[in-house]
Amino acid sequence: MKMSKIFMLTFGVFALTACSQTMQSADKHTHWGYTGHESPEHWATLSPKFAICTEGKSQSPVNIVNAIDGKLAPIKIDYHPSSVEIVNNGHTIQVDFKDANNLMQLNGHTYTLKQFHFHVPSENQIRGKSFPLEAHFVHADKDGNLAVLGVLYVLSSENQRLAPIWHNFPQKAGETHTLDTAFDPTKLIPKKRDYYRFSGSLTTPPCSEGVNWLVLKQYDNVSQAQVDAFSTLMKGHNNRPIQPINARVIVE
Questions:
Q1: Which residue of 30, 40, 199, 243 has the smallest Cβ count within 10 Å?
Q2: What's the CA gap between 69 and 172, in Å, rounded?
Q3: Which residues are designated catalytic?
């Protein structure tokens, strides 16, 4: 099969329109988590709205392996210093943008950055390798279609670019903190932007599919102390286990 046909079959699902509810983690009235009877293996039983967490065939995260060469178009990032609110939603630390001027262009298609958040350890893996931290930059186009840009971190020295977020963690679930100064998300995106692309889902309930996933090949750094601070705040890990690839193709 020609590459163009593979590409069309693989990413045809991206044409699906994600409803506005997919920007939320889940049904506000259904409690879910990462341990015990609310852990990922039980999500589908917690609410009928979460059934796709088990029934879906394009679930995230994935182990990125056996990628094919698709000559992917470059990612064009046009982010700016912006007013942000740091939210502790009980499942992660999420940074919400009050401005709509942070854009990502891909194949001539424009997405607006809505928020970014973190998982410890990483949710996606590269050839079976897990990473101590992963950031997800969640974008939506004018029709509500989602594109998530994933950045993986390796242990090294303290990441000063993360410091404005790490030094202002809201300590309790439901608390928020608005930074006094504008935050530039460009600083968190590696300069080299080669990437893997695949169809997937939200990695939290309701696990909605039709999400365009882009995972950068270049890693950023984070210190063990920063990882520990996040884990302590979240009272443990907040990563969903790897999901089956099924019929999907990963393109690089």
A1: 30
A2: 45
A3: 91
